[in-house]
Design brief:
- The complex is a heterotrimer of chains A (about 250), B (about 650) and C (about 100).
- With about 250 residues, chain A is mainly alpha-helical.
- Chain A is built from eight helices and no strands.
- Among the domains of chain A are: about 80 residues, NADH-ubiquinone/plastoquinone oxidoreductase chain 6, subunit NuoJ (Four Helix Bundle (Hemerythrin (Met), subunit A), Up-down Bundle); about 50 residues, no CATH class.
- Chain A is about 55% helix and about 0% strand.
- In chain A, helix 1 packs antiparallel against helix 2 and helix 2 packs antiparallel against helix 3.
- By secondary structure, chain C is an all-alpha fold.
- Chain C is built from three helices and no strands.
- The longest helix of chain C has 28 residues.
- The chains are: A mainly alpha (about 250), B mainly alpha (about 650), C mainly alpha (about 100).
């Protein structure tokens, strides 16, 4: 049973991943990401990490991806970019090389070692809890020492999280989130007055400058047809702004 | 009382600082009096320290104090400290005493000069440097003072630097000194390398008790020290700068080039007598041979000079030669004795000459003098005392000290004694010549034709006049000292040899005692007196009675000092210059080029490497992925399967 | 047969590696900044998967807790990253990351 679930979930995950990488429209990519996240959540459940599966869905799929979509809508980055063209010379070739190598090594490590990275097969692993931490058996006890139901993952996660080993990290991450919120507010303030335009000298030497780079020259983009009618006027004003900006 | 030793150089340093800040505001003559006061204060402190030492028994007459650690550099730890012992206090006494008198004199001499306070600034700085030289407790402080007096000498010689000849003379002095300084530095390196310390007490205890120096090393050190001394004390061939240095104001010549700076070389060698004792005989022989040659050489040149100051300059070179003869022969007491008496009478002679020059409106050519004793009685009287002293006429001080030096020459080599005697006779001769040409005879001055500022020749009467009190009072005091200074070390019995008893602790038994009978010494003394008289009488015949034509004596080549100076100059200008320019080229292009080349290479490499910073996020991401792959590859390679 | 196959950790690790690679590929190829971000999220998820699978195998809850922290940090990172993207791209919505190359050497 586990195997079936594994393979189906794996399929969903990989399909989603390919979708993220290959879909032109960023909104489609975001939705594909949601699929991947769901697949990963199913894997978590398979691995008896129930709490995290729930957190994954709620936080990742439910908040982070929504945030992505908000930004996509805000910036209006709903124009497609051409995947075929590659402005940086040699990027694709090197990328292919690197990725093949990465895959090989990754799978090699994962499979060949059969997870025995410590060199000890799991059946013979004697687990001693690291200092301050709780072993799963200990975590599965309530305060009076009785073993609680083995599947109350959230309780054992909670007990471990507030044990000596992890409580400091927990508090720090709380702080981190606060800082992130403040940072986000500060970064996105509208600046007063006119901003200086980004200096636009010649592009770096490894960029190709031919006409294939549709998204570098938005005025010559040929994806206009699929968009709403308000687009042309908007694109004119923004392209006028663009050329005003890039005209120095 | 001996703990006041830091005041001795402290006073002139304070004077220097005050004059630096307030000098121009103080103006004339307060700046001069301030400078004189500080040097006098220094003298009084030296006296206090002297009494402090004198009240102790001879073995304990050493006082060392270290103010702070000056250079803490690994093994080399040099402290700023002072050593008050018989030799250094003797030197400090006469340096500050004569210095104070000269300061007072200079108030009168430099009257009306626009750079009045600057002069005293330099003078105080000079006295400070000289005292550091003398009082330092290690070689590095002595070297500090050594260089300091060299620098001040440069400042003071080229004091009237608007005249290019003066500036050149200053440069010549400094450069020639530097050649000598190289020797001093090499000696310091050798000493430090072999002994590990530059402090005198450490060096002496190592050399005497621990035999730390081999004979070869000691010889090398002695030769190098002598080169340094020769530069500073104007021995052949590094004497060239002293006659030219007369371009400076006369108080400068008196202080620096008669009494103090030029004696530094003698002081250094006397101080390092334990090292000289360890050296091979030929090195000390070298010292007295060079001294003897210099004495004779300079005496011959002095005979034909027409500038009053040049005569005195060559005379100084010659007398320094006498001192080195004594040092090289091992009779350090004689050298120090002659140094002290020479300080008195030479300073007196220079100041007297300055008085004459001042009275004759800066005319320095003796051919335009004559019969000045009536116009300047005090100057003449004191000058005559100085003359008798230097000529070696008893009972003035010069006779006693010169006699000791002649004894040193007798001890070494009879022929050396004859040559030195000849130099002494010539000394009497040319000094008498100077006195007769200046103060006696007929007056050869009258009207002078001087070019006024608007290039019109102007005739005006020269009326020589006596100098003001500030100028003749030091003359009187110095003449008194020049007269009685012989009492320091009369040779009659051990009790009268005060200087020898005083200096005994610092000599560590290295003083050579001449084993000649009392009769021999009397005979030598009489011969010296006769020789001096011969010189004086010969001068009378030539210059007073005009029996012999002066052209037979005053050959042109003598006036040019055997053309040594001009030979050196032309060499330096010709092949010398080309080698200097080659060295400069080498330094600029190869050494500097190597250093600059490193910079240029770095620049070029970095320009190439810059192109990896494209600023594109995706190429950076690619780089990261490739890097990650590399690291994983490394770990995979270490995995056992 | 496939139903009885026991899924050991190596399967999950292989999947994790594959997911990671796909994410990396997307990062290198896409030019839209937001899509690049999503690929980063893919890579993070791959890592999470590996963590959990090791945690299950070792019997250590540390794996799950690490994933929790990774999740938190990823969330914070996304917040800031998107804020930056907004700040930079606000006026040039059609830009690709290639245009932001001012920090060139």
């Amino acid at each position: 049973m586990e195997a079936v679930v594994f393979f189906i979930a794996a399929g969903v995950t990989l399909a989603g991943a390919c979708g993220v990488v290959l879909l032109k429209n960023p909104v489609h990519a975001a939705l594909s990401l949601v699929g991947t996240l769901f697949g990963v959540a199913i894997h978590f459940i398979n691995l008896e990490a129930y709490f995290l599966a729930a957190v994954q869905v709620i936080v990742y799929a439910g908040a982070i991806v929504i945030l992505f979509l908000f930004v996509i809508m805000l910036l209006g980055v709903d124009r497609a970019e051409s995947i075929r063209a590659e402005p940086i010379i040699g990027q694709r070739h090197l990328a292919l090389l690197a990725l093949v190598a990465l895959l090989t090594f990754g799978v090699l490590i994962g499979v060949a070692s059969k997870g025995e990275v410590t060199g000890v097969p799991p059946q013979e692993a004697t687990y001693t809890p690291l200092e301050g931490g709780l072993s799963i058996d200990e975590a599965r006890q309530d305060d009076t020492g009785n073993t609680i139901a083995p599947k109350e993952n959230i309780r054992e996660v909670g007990r471990s999280l507030f044990s000596t080993r992890y409580v400091f990290a927990l508090e720090i991450t709380a702080l981190l989130l606060t800082i992130a919120v403040i940072g986000a507010v500060v970064l996105t303030r509208r600046p007063k007055g006119e901003l200086e335009p980004i200096p636009d000298d010649d592009p770096p030497s490894i960029m190709r400058n031919d006409e294939n780079n549709a998204d570098l020259h938005p005025t010559s983009s040929d994806d206009d047809e699929s968009l709403l009618e308000t687009e042309p006027s908007e694109s004119e004003t923004s392209s006028a702004e663009e050329s005003g900006v890039s005209g120095e | 009382m001996t703990s006041l030793v830091w005041l001795i150089p402290g006073f002139p340093l304070i004077g220097f600082t005050l004059l630096l800040i307030f000098g121009r505001r103080l103006g004339e003559p307060q700046a001069g009096w301030l400078a004189t006061a500080t040097v006098s204060g220094s003298f009084l402190s030296a006296l206090a320290v002297f009494f402090g030492l004198a009240t102790k028994p001879p073995e304990e007459r050493v006082y060392e104090v270290t103010l702070f650690e000056w250079i803490p550099s690994g093994e080399l730890s040099v402290g700023m400290g002072f050593l008050a012992d018989p030799l250094s206090i003797a030197m400090a006494l006469f340096v500050t005493g004569v210095g104070a008198l000269i300061h007072m004199y200079a108030i009168g001499y430099m009257h009306g000069d626009p750079k009045f306070s600057k002069f005293f600034l330099y003078l105080n700085l000079f006295v400070f440097a000289m005292l550091m030289l003398v009082l330092g407790d290690n070689l590095l402080i002595t070297f500090l003072g050594w260089e300091g007096v060299g620098a001040c000498s440069y400042f003071l010689i080229s004091f009237w630097h608007e005249e290019p000849a003066n500036a050149t003379a200053g440069k010549k002095a400094f450069v020639t000194n530097r050649v000598g300084d190289w020797g001093f530095m090499v000696a310091m390196f050798l000493l430090f390398f072999n002994i590990g310390s530059l402090k005198y007490s450490d060096i002496f205890s190592s050399v005497i008790e621990a035999d730390a120096l081999t004979q070869t090393t000691a010889t090398g050190i002695v030769v190098m020290l002598f080169i340094g001394a020769a530069g500073k004390s104007a021995q052949f061939p590094l004497y060239l700068w002293l006659p030219d240095a007369m371009a400076g104001p006369t108080p400068v010549s008196a202080l620096i080039h008669a009494a103090t700076m030029v004696t530094s070389g003698v002081y250094l060698l006397t101080r390092m007598n334990p090292v000289l004792a360890e050296a091979a005989g030929w090195s000390t022989d070298l010292i007295w041979i060079v001294g003897l040659f210099t004495a004779l050489f300079a005496a011959t040149a002095a005979v034909a000079q027409n500038d009053i100051k040049k005569v005195l300059a060559y005379s100084t070179v010659s007398q320094l030669g006498f001192m080195f003869v004594a040092v090289g022969s091992g009779l350090y007491v004689a050298a120090i004795f002659h140094m002290i008496t020479h300080a008195f009478f030479k300073a007196l002679l220079f100041l007297g000459a300055g008085s004459v020059i001042h009275g004759m409106h800066h005319e320095q050519d003796m051919r335009k003098y004559g019969a000045l004793r009536k116009a300047m009685p005090i100057t003449a009287f004191t000058f005559i005392i100085g003359w008798l002293a230097i000529a070696g006429i008893p009972p003035f001080s010069g006779f006693w000290s010169k006699d000791e030096v002649l004894l040193a020459a007798w001890n070494e080599n009879k022929i050396a004694w004859v040559m030195l005697l000849a130099a002494a006779v010539m000394t009497a001769f040319y000094m008498s010549r100077l006195v007769f040409m200046t103060f006696f005879g007929e007056k050869r001055w009258g009207t002078s034709e001087e070019e006024a500022h608007d290039n019109e020749t102007e005739k005006h009467e020269i009326t020589p006049h006596e100098s003001p009190v500030v100028m003749w009072l030091p003359l009187v005091l110095l003449s008194g000292l020049a007269a009685i200074a012989g009492l320091l070390n009369l040779p009659f019995s051990h009790d009268t040899k005060h200087l020898e008893k005083w200096l005994e602790p610092i000599l560590f038994g290295n003083e050579v005692h001449v084993n000649a009978s009392g009769q021999t010494k009397w005979l030598l003394a009489v011969i010296a007196i006769i020789g001096a008289s011969v010189g004086v009488i010969a001068a009378i015949f030539v210059y007073l009675k005009n029996r012999v034509a002066t052209s037979k004596i005053e050959h042109a080549i003598l006036e040019d000092a055997w053309r040594f100076d001009s030979t050196v100059s032309s060499f330096m200008d010709g092949p010398g210059r080309r080698s200097f320019e080659a060295t400069t080229w080498f330094d600029q292009n190869i050494i500097d080029g190597a250093v600059n080349g490193v910079g240029k290479i770095t620049q070029r490499v970095s320009t190439r490497l810059r192109s990896t910073q494209t600023g594109l996020i995706r190429s950076y991401a690619l780089g990261m992925v490739i890097g990650a792959v590399a690291i994983i590859a490394y770990f995979v390679s270490r995995m056992g399967f | 047969m496939i139903l009885g196959l026991s899924i050991g950790p190596e399967y999950y690790l292989a999947l994790s590696a594959l997911l990671f690679t796909i994410g990396a590929g997307g990062l290198l190829i896409r030019r839209n900044p937001l899509v690049m971000f999503m690929c980063i999220e893919l890579m993070l998820n791959a890592a999470n998967l590996a963590f959990i699978s090791f945690g299950k195998e070792m019997g250590d809850l540390g794996g799950q807790l690490s994933v929790l922290f990774v999740l938190v940090v990823a969330a914070a990172e996304v917040v800031i990253g998107l804020a930056i993207v907004v700040a930079v791209m606000r006026r040039r919505p059609k830009a690709s990351v290639d245009e932001v190359s001012v920090l060139r050497g």
